[in-house]
Amino acid sequence: MTDASTSPPGDPARGPGAGESAPATHRTRRWSEHPLSVPANLSIALATLFFFVLLPIRNAPVAAWVVLGIWVLANVALVTVIARTRRLAVETRAAEDDAEGPVEGTSLLRDALRRLRRNQLATVSLGIILVLIALCFAQRLIYAAGRPEPGARETSPGFFALHVDHTRVNKDEAFQPPSSRHWFGTDGLGRDTFARTLYGGSISFVVGLVATLVSLAIGLTWGATAGYFGGRVDHYMMRVVDVLYGLPFIFLVILILTLINGLHATAAQHRQDVVRYRQLESEGRHDEAARLADERGIDRSVRTAVTLSDWANPVIVMFVALGLVQWLTLARITRGQVLSLKEREFVVAARVVGAGNARIIFRHIIPNLLGPVIVYTTLTIPTVILAEAFLSFIGLGIPEPDCSWGTLASEGIYAINVIKPYWWLITYPAAAISLALFSLNFIGDGLRDALDPRQRR
Amino acid sequence: MNPRFVLYRLAWVVVTVWAVATISFFIIRLAPGDPFMNEMRALRPEVREARYRQYNLDRPLLVQYGLWLERIAFHGDFGPSMKYRGKTVNEIIAQTLPVSIALGSLAMVFALVLGLTSGFIAALRQNSLLDYALMVFAVFGISLPNFVIATLLVMIFVFNFAFFPLAGWDTYGQVFLPALSLSLPFAARISRLARVGMLEVLGEDFVRTAHAKGLRESQLVIKHALRGAVLPVVSFLGPAFALILTGSLVIEKIFYVPGLGKQFVLAAINRDYSLVLGAVVVFSTLLCVFNFLVDLSYALLDPRVKL
Predict the structure, then answer these.
(1) Are B290 and B241 in contact (CB under 8 A)?
(2) CA of A436 to nearest chain B CA: how many angstroms apart?
(3) Are A314 and A264 a contacting pair, CB within 8 Å?
(4) What is the mean pLDDT of chain A?
């Protein structure tokens, strides 16, 4: 095995003509050299998505198909331009690279960005994930801005009611297949699946981000402390991580979530009585309070449940619980990095030159730590979203009327069977979650390739 | 192999299981409400008290904990179920655990076969179209949630072609789909690990030497590279087992497989204390013992690892 053949597929770091043999990779590498390749790839991917959304809609307006047609033609034009000017672009880029390489120093970040840009799967994924996030949060913003007055009678449902309002119940339109009226169909209560998918997406993204931040905070602190102090502290802190690794965490998370759900159910049942009880107590009418407690069965545990459920929202508990599961690997990565970095020559050299601790940490340790941490964080987000979907699926996730992709999919899966093929209820949420996780994983892989050229394979 | 190390690791298994059992015990007891609060009609106070006495629920929490632990540790008895009146947890576990184990081990076999073959093929044909295709499939497998894979398989094989029955657990056909959908996500991970491991070994000096001595490639791979290439996969088997356990919670629900995972989720929601704790103890024992075995086999496979 020579060096060239063990290097990774689609290796963006090597310039063109660095002794490759497979013609297929040769072509793709050339394509990714072109400045227009990123927008072209993204445009093609989005057009394909648009086609798949449009396809099942029976009475789609002709205008939509015309738009798709123009879009496809534009893509063809773009591809032709790239194909025609490819060689020119590659040569210019190579000349630029040669010119700037040894002369002008490049930073870690700029180097990484350049490598990332040439990774086609990663850039397309990045574009898709940005579009998805934008759509999901646009739905939330528009909904927050245009929420109808409760009880207001609507005459004819407009764009907002049909495509944005995820709470609008309409019994007459239950289980409608995808149409130009409801792009993704409706569920058993006549709620628009398109709006609900977007809303669920925003919840899923928030869960993924917040839980990842929780795990980042714990893992970084733990790992950095262990690595920085070293010795006995390091030994014991890492022992704790080892022990926790062996625990079947997901079962504990399930138990914690049932505990919280139980708290909420109890609290919701008894909240009014408890409020009344507290009022009586504070007014000093202890007899009446005791009688009320006796009648309605509110003992101390019920009162604690109400207090707890006021500040421990199930969604927040889920963030924390999922974050707590994920920090272990991050702690190990951070610790290993810090441990090896603080002994490295460039750190010693910096110290010799007279750099202070702060300068060494911020200028030398953190930038080098950042790469693996960013990569791991990017890969944690899909893991967390997946875990949330899993918990929602077994009925412990986001409670009604809120929804996430996991709850939508689990509702959908029980709606399909041979007699009533309500396929749209499962297909769209599942497709959305798959698309998001797929993209996030590719971005993570791409970032790993871009940020850590040594570990690349 | 150092027997002291083996004993030490075994002690850790016991401690871990005990820790998990204790944490779970207190988590589930801290929840308000009890197993009898969702009965069809409210229980009369006398009945309720009798029930409490029957299950020791009227004692202080620590006494309950001591009794419970003593019964498990010395008699292996998880006590009577609180929801399935007249059945003990041991009976329920004895009925459902074999199903889960059958499903899990079949999934493991599928995953190992699929993952290792595709990973090695991808590594041996590196940078070919086949390699790319397999790796894109692998990312699919990692990204797609378990239940999406299961639904896809159901849509294709049950609704479109009617190859397999949808649900249940009586015939061999009914075992295939759940096991396949349980195995695919982690077949994908194994595939990636196997590919990386194989590539790494193939780049090493002793492989080049063997190559230079004129060994045929098939011989080279089988005799020299395979052992080293399997190592990352072996170290993944521990987490993979945990993954299969959690995955089985979902898969058993989708395919109506009467396994322990389904019982566990139901019991957690119904607050069937004894059944939940029994399931947690069984699951964590399985997991810890499996991790222990993986560590041992790792030492056997890699002479550089000293135990």
Answers:
(1) yes
(2) 9
(3) yes
(4) 77
Chain centre to alpha carbon of residue A82:
32
- A44: its two tokens: 């093609």
Residue A23 scores a pLDDT above 50: no
Contact by Cβ (8 Å): A117, A435: no
User: Mean pLDDT, to the nearest integer, of A272-288?
Assistant: 78
Q: Which residues contact B98 (CB under 8 A, 6 or more apart)?
A: none
For residue B225, which residues of chain A lie inside 8 Å, CB to CB?
none
Q: What is the Cα–Cα distance from B7 to A63, expressed in whole angstroms? A: 73
Chain A residues with CB-CB distance to B159 below 8 A? 418, 421
pLDDT at position A6 over 50? no
Q: Which of B131, B146, B242 sits opposite A9 (nearest CB)?
A: B131
Split at pLDDT 50, 70, 90, the class of A133 is very high
Highest mean pLDDT among A92-96, A165-169, B125-129, B260-264: B260-264
- How many helices and strands in chain B, by DSSP H and E? 12, 0
Interface of A with B in 211-230 (CB under 8 A): none
| Of residues A7, A32, A4, the one with CA closest to residue A18 | A4
DSSP secondary structure letter of residue A160 = I
Residues in chain A: 457
Over residues B49-60, mean pLDDT = 71
What single-letter amino acid sits at A313? N
CB of A315 closer than 8 Å to CB of A398: yes
Q: Quick check: helix, strand or coil at residue A416?
A: strand
Longest dimension (CA), chain B: 86
Q: Per DSSP, what are the bridge partners of residue A421?
A: A416
Side-chain-side CA neighbours of residue A433 (13 Å): 36
Supply φ then ψ for residue A421, to 5 degrees.
-80, 75
Q: Which residues have C-beta within 8 Å of that of residue B301, sequence separation ≥ 6? A: B227, B230, B231, B234
Q: Among A197, A247, A300, which would you mutate to test the B interface (most chain B Cβ atoms within 10 Å of its Cβ)? A: A247
Q: Which of A364, A434, A371, A443 shows the shortest CA–CA distance to A204?
A: A434
In tens, the pLDDT along A32-55 reads 777 778 888 888 889 888 888 888
Model confidence pLDDT, tens digit, residues B166-220: 666 666 667 788 888 889 888 998 998 888 888 888 888 888 888 888 888 788 8
Question: What does the alpha-carbon distance between residue B250 and residue B262 come to, in Å, rounded to a whole number?
Answer: 8
Q: What are phi and psi of B248, to 5 degrees?
A: -65, -25
Residue pair A120/A427 in contact (Cβ under 8 Å)? The answer is no
Query: Encoding tokens for residue A323?
Result: 């974050």
Q: Do A256 and B27 touch (CB under 8 A)?
A: yes
Cβ(A178)–Cβ(A56) below 8 Å? yes
* Spatial separation of the C-alpha atoms in residues A339 and A359, rounded to whole Å: 17
The helix/strand/coil state of A421 is: strand
Dist CA B29 CA B10 (whole Å): 29
The pTM (predicted TM-score) of the whole model is 0.80
